[in-house]
Design brief:
Elements (H helix, E strand, L loop, with lengths): L6 H6 L6 H25 L16 E5 L3 E5 L2 E5 L2 E4 L18 H12 L7 H9 L7 H18 L9 E11 L8 E10 L4 E9 L4 H13 L7 E4 L3 H10 L4 E4 L1 H9 L7 H12 L4 H17 L3 H6 L4 H4 L10 H4 L3 H14 L8 H16 L9 H7 L2 E4 L2 E7 L5
Parallel strand pairs: 5-8, 8-9
Antiparallel strand pairs: 1-4, 2-3, 5-6, 6-7, 10-11
Amino acid sequence: MKQDITPESRAQRVTWETLEDYVRESVQELIQGLLEQEVTELLGRGKSERRGVVDAAPGYRNGHGKPRRLTLGSGTVRVRRPRVRDLDERFESRILPLFVRRTEQVSDLIPELYLHGLAEGDFDLALRGLLGEDAPLSASTVARLKTKWQAEMAGWNARRLDDLDVVYLWVDGVYVKAGLEDRKAAVLVLLAGLSDGRKVLVALKSGQRESTASWAGVLRDLRSRGLRAPRLVIGDGHLGIWAGLGQVYPEAAEQRCWNHRILNLLDRIGKRDQPAAIALLRTIVYAGTLQEAESHKTSFQHWCRQRGYEEAGRLIDEDWERMVAFYGFPKEHWTHLRTTNPIESPFAALRLRTDAAKRFKKVENATAVMWKMLLIAESRFRRLNAPELMKELFEGAVYINGLPQPNQTKRLAA
């Protein structure tokens, strides 16, 4: 007589080599049991039990559907959805909805892998290795998810922003060339530093170019959804940013990125003299006070005149007030404010994905993927130094040369 195999006896035969199969089978049995229990609770009686009273819950078990593959983070299992007939309304399982083939965690894994460099054509092989040969995932899965992400992004771009206390706002743009598009499109990205020290993405929208109209349009949309003016906006030297900002949030202070300015200056200096120029420029960028920065700027200009780089000497005077606006904020935050690195750093991985034009047939696809990847990266964004100072800044605290000014508060627009 054949002995029944119980869970206990099967567990006793598990070895390291069979552990994966044992776990997968156990999970499969658990999910199937949950589905059966769900029907039992719906009908108020177990399998093969008769209806006890006249007014008992309607409905009868009606077998099972075809085996369905369900991909979890631990692998792919096969389950069968119980069928129920004679109900007043169609039975919808809370555990396994219709047409679902993977958990949310697995769907989130796809943009994670894409973020770390996996191309669409490699998904089939890589995901089957991770999730099992039966995993219902492929390159076409990514294409379907892009459509879903576009719909999610549209809702995200319409959300209210009244609850965000924005102190700093970093802005930047990247140009995307999609395979079937004639021109590159600028994707405008805005990252906010909040009063609790967190950094969050507040906008990502595509436009024809980084024009004043494009930037002003994004900023007006944010304002219409309740985003109040930030204390400081940090961006590169593109004139469209500052002109658009002046139209929408004229009360915000403006800080230009020093990395971009240094690169512009080095373009006007011979390669042999560039190391010396960088050393002099660093004394300006990292000066302890505004007065020291201006003194080091004068020294750099004198050095430029001696070596025939008058154009570089004149360029550093251009937009000087925007270059040194960070001195009006806490010294603990200067490392975050001198450059657009807080937004450039997560953008570096995105550029690897978007620079390969063959990955995208439409700019909308590229934008949706960038949005999804940035939201995933957002959970790992570094918090601002000295976050306890952010609330005071939001309320209008005044700083000079990085130091707080007692009993002084900047009047903020309502």
